[in-house]
Amino acid sequence: MSRSDRKRWKAARTLSDLGHLAADWWEGSVRHLPGHRAGHRPHPALADRTAVLAAANRTGFLAVAAQAGLADGTVQQRAAVQGFATDPVLIRRLVDAAEKAGLEIVLNDFLDAQHGPGDGITVTTCDGQAVNVIGEALGLDDIAALWPRLPHAVEAVAPALQVTLTDPEFGPDDLLWDTLAAATTPAPPAPAPKILCQECGCTYRDNCADGCSGVQDQDDGRCAACIDPSVVIDWSKARDGEESQCALCGAPFFSAGRYCTPECETADTDDPEETSATAAAPAGDLEGPRPTCPF
């Protein structure tokens, strides 16, 4: 390993640090990958997948082992990737996406290796015989072999979950790579709710509790209910009747009559003496409080 590359690998202290260096290795700006021979480069069959693998590494999935699917006579390969992750949100995304896509999944930690490596997944066969198996549990010695003479890297990788994903079928396929890309692409940050109404504080994300539908005039900065109180539906005044509109002012109310208040009925009649207070009483509760006209 060159002095410059070894210096960079020795400076890495976290899984994220290692992931960013591994991403650079997939892309070619770092020439050496610990645990491999000098000048080791990704297999040419992975040339179209290095961008996905680099992006996954930068997201927090330290993936340093992968192979492309292949169907070449007697040799059959599944697309596969093996890596390490500590972020529970990322792990959940990886597992959920893999299950939904129908990928094969193996999850281990270094303690699992105390009971043996496990079965793993056969990803390469030749003449029908297994020649490459990945997904076996890695113990501390195995992890140290991946990061020789880099104790800080071993400390960062050892507690991580070992995640192996493979295509369910042998042969070239995009399924694994599309799934990995989707699971490791950071979701755009959700915008914080912006308070739009300067008076009641309703936002564009929900409606006001009193029935208006938020701010319509951005320049005004107030919601419809604060601009014009007649849009407010006062559900506390609901009785047995259906919602009505006052024949005079148009305010919503619940009543068997035509007006929301006696004042509206008085204003709409030619002879104030002919008003009928009971016309505005809420149905089913003649003695209850009457709604107040908003005008």
Key features of this structure:
295 residues, alpha+beta, disordered C terminus, 4-stranded antiparallel beta sheet, 9 helices
Describe how the helices and strands are arranged.
Blueprint: H1 3-11, H2 15-27, H3 50-59, E1 62-67, E2 70-72, E3 75-77, E4 80-85, H4 88-101, E5 104-108, E6 121-126, E7 129-134, H5 140-146, H6 151-157, E8 161-166, H7 175-184, H8 224-227, E9 243-245, E10 252-254, H9 262-267
Antiparallel strand pairs: 1-4, 2-3, 3-6, 4-8, 5-8, 6-7, 9-10
Descriptive report:
With 295 residues, this protein is of the alpha+beta class. The protein has a domain at 3-184. Helices cover 27% and strands 16% of the residues. It contains 9 helices and 10 strands. It has helices at 3-11, 15-27, 50-59, 88-101, 140-146, 151-157, 175-184, 224-227, 262-267; strands at 62-67, 70-72, 75-77, 80-85, 104-108, 121-126, 129-134, 161-166, 243-245, 252-254. A 4-stranded antiparallel sheet has the order 1-4-8-5. Strands 2-3-6-7 form a 4-stranded antiparallel sheet, with no helix packed on it. A hairpin with a 6-residue loop joins strand 9 (243-245) and strand 10 (252-254). Helix 2 (15-27) packs antiparallel against helix 3, helix 3 runs parallel beside helix 7 (175-184) and helix 4 (88-101) packs antiparallel against helix 7 (175-184). It starts with a helix and ends in a 28-residue tail after the last helix.
